[in-house]
């Protein structure tokens, strides 16, 4: 019996060791093409690390989030990101922040963060927010929505399409925390209809089940980036 327990313990430890050695760190960019040439190395899944002895308080500090972003644009919103590019000390800490400003009836269009879950708190005004699930077994994509007022909090799970809309005739402000030093943003309409070079319109016409003329019109529009 002791032998059975020993073998079981050994198997569990082997499995744990296998899992540990197979673990990969979360990616911090869209892709990282491998190279064996040190001269061609650009970064190591994010940023290089400075000698800790040379760190200073300014490496962990930024300011200016008391100032509203410019919402005078086609979507009526502005996202001020505070990620590792703005605070160098965020490197490897797996967190970032953003201020979101909304003009009356402004919107942060449907988008995803491929590398982060987002938690949002409304500071001023009202926001209608929501996210859509991945494809379900019945072929549906479930929509979760909520009207948020000052002090309300909402979570958008990692990678899922989500949005925020200001339904009121007054500005709105929110702050968001994201679980990555570089969460990334894919704005759906911009990516699908404004890619460079453009996606073949026949592909999009088939995908959206519309006439190609509709796709041609959409691809000719100027797709604004509010980040």
Automatic annotation (TrEMBL):
Gene Ontology MF annotations: manganese ion binding
SMART domains xrefs: Cupin_1
GO cellular component, one term: apoplast
Binding residues annotated for oxalate, in chain numbering: 108, 113, 118
InterPro entries recorded: Cupin_1, Germin, Germin_Mn-BS, RmlC-like_jellyroll, RmlC_Cupin_sf
Disulphide-bridged cysteine pairs: 32-49
A matching Pfam family: Cupin_1
Keywords: Apoplast, Disulfide bond, Glycoprotein, Manganese, Metal-binding, Secreted, Signal
Subcellular location per the Swiss-Prot or TrEMBL entry: Secreted, Extracellular space, Apoplast
Keyword Cell membrane in annotation: no
This protein's record includes keyword Manganese: yes
Binding annotation for Mn(2+): 111, 113, 118, 162
Residues in Cupin type-1 domain copies: 63-216
Signal peptide coordinates: 1-22
Protein family: Belongs to the germin family.
Function: May play a role in plant defense. Probably has no oxalate oxidase activity even if the active site is conserved.
Protein name: Germin-like protein
Organism: Trema orientale
Lineage: Eukaryota, Viridiplantae, Streptophyta, Embryophyta, Tracheophyta
């Amino acid at each position: 019996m002791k032998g059975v327990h020993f073998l079981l313990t050994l198997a569990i430890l082997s499995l744990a060791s296998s899992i540990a050695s197979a673990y990969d760190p979360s990616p911090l960019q869209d892709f990282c093409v491998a190279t064996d040439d040190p001269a061609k190395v650009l970064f190591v899944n994010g940023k290089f690390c400075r000698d800790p002895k040379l760190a200073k308080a300014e490496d962990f500090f930024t300011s200016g989030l008391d100032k509203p972003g410019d919402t005078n644009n086609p979507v009526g919103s502005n996202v001020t990101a505070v990620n590792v590019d703005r605070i160098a000390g965020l490197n490897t800490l797996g967190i970032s922040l953003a201020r979101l400003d909304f003009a009356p009836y402004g919107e942060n269009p449907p988008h995803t963060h491929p590398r982060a879950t987002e938690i949002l708190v409304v500071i001023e005004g009202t926001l209608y927010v929501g996210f859509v699930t991945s494809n379900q077994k019945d072929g549906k994509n479930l929509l979760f929505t909520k009207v948020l007022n000052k002090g309300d909090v909402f979570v958008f799970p990692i990678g899922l399409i989500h949005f925020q809309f200001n339904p009121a005739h007054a500005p709105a402000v929110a702050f968001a925390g994201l679980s990555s030093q570089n969460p990334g943003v894919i704005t759906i309409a911009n990516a699908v209809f404004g890619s460079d070079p453009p996606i073949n319109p026949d592909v999009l016409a088939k995908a959206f089940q519309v006439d190609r003329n509709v796709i041609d019109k959409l691809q000719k529009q100027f797709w604004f980036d509010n980040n």
